[in-house]
Design brief:
Layout (H helix, E strand, L loop, with lengths): L1 H12 L5 H22 L6 E6 L2 E5 L17 E3 L21 E6 L2 E5 L1
Parallel strand pairs: 2-3, 3-4
Antiparallel strand pairs: 1-2, 4-5
InterPro entries: LRR_dom_sf (IPR032675)
Keywords: Signal
Amino acid sequence: MWFWLLVMSFCCVHGTTTTMDDSLQYTQLDIRKEKRLTACGTNHTCDCHQTKKTFYLVDCSFRDLSVIPTLPHNATEIDLSSNRLTGIPPGTFQWTINLTCLYAITKGTTYYIS
């Protein structure tokens, strides 16, 4: 009896899970994927995360981008840092009426709008 308790304790401590736990993990992954698709729409250039019910973080950092991709209109935060952008044309974000934060670095110029 003690042997099996030790085996089960070892498995739990070292990350071995049961089939029931695996199905729960898949369900949680599906829910996160669904939220990501809802936040991003069909654009997969960047990662989108729904941080609160109506707040959407669009992470385009470290994508080696030379132009700003099409972004969802419901974005509240956009991170364009660590790319090859040479500038941000005027009016680029005029349609993002909920945008509260923009992080971008272009040729040594740091943009931070909050």
